[in-house]
Amino acid sequence: MFEIFGIPSQALFGQLLIGLINGSFYALLSLGLAVIFGMLNIINFAHGAQYMMGAFAAFFLLNFVGLNYWIALLVAPIMVGAFGVVIERLLLQRLYKLDHLYGLLLTFGLALIIEGLFRNYFGSSGLPYRVPAALQGGQNLGFMFLPNYRAWVIVASLTVCIVTWFVIERTKLGSYLRAATENPSLVRAFGINVPRMITLTYGFGVALAALAGVMAAPIYSVSPQMGSHLIIVVFAVVVIGGMGSILGAIVTGFGLGVIEGLTKVFFPEASNTVIFIIMAIVLLIRPAGLFGRRA
Fold this sequence. Notes:
By secondary structure, the chain is mostly helical. The chain is 70% helix and 3% strand. It has helices at residues 9-40, 47-65, 69-90, 100-122, 148-170, 172-182, 184-189, 194-216, 228-241, 246-266, 274-285, and strands at residues 3-4, 7-8, 138-140, 145-147.
């Protein structure tokens, strides 16, 4: 074992790994928020609750249906995404012409209701979800021990983020999505069902949150409060990257996760506030965010 800046290498690289893992969840969640805000102009405060629902969906599928982690990785986001579609059709559609504040208040209320229901039924203590057998164990890299599951989370999250960015920024479907936010009447003239596109976009953003929840279940305990502990940080990530910016959500999510992890090594006292300090600095210098566009 060697030292870097007087810090044992295992401690430094261990915190770097933790930062990348946290950054993976920050990126996935902020990506879902960016997709929803960019298309619907809704600040989805229920995103943390939907992340928690993804973890609970995986827990139910394993313990009550007998479906393993790999199937839950596909089924749980679809289930929670379908729930999001119902919310959009019944509630959010009524708010699109109103101020952003109404959407924030509605989704904040939904988050409280969902979390309260799960907490009343399951309590506040966490429920275990085992790591899939194929990803148990790890690799000894010499300077650190790398658990297989955590490596999988980082690679899978990065892959999903890149594919989502490519679809939205580099394909015809993405062009329609972006055009629908700027001029929905013109997009309708091409025979595209804009309301359906908006509904499916919200469902997709919710499904991204649920996917993050499934991947988080074996690392963190499945708890009704797991989303509320994370959502404030994720909103800070979105603000720093730029509201509605897909690239900003991805880059900022991973970058701030690493910065947070390294802060725990060099200045532990600031590790819980470093992201908010960065947010304040960015808002002072560039109010639209690092990758955002000025109104």
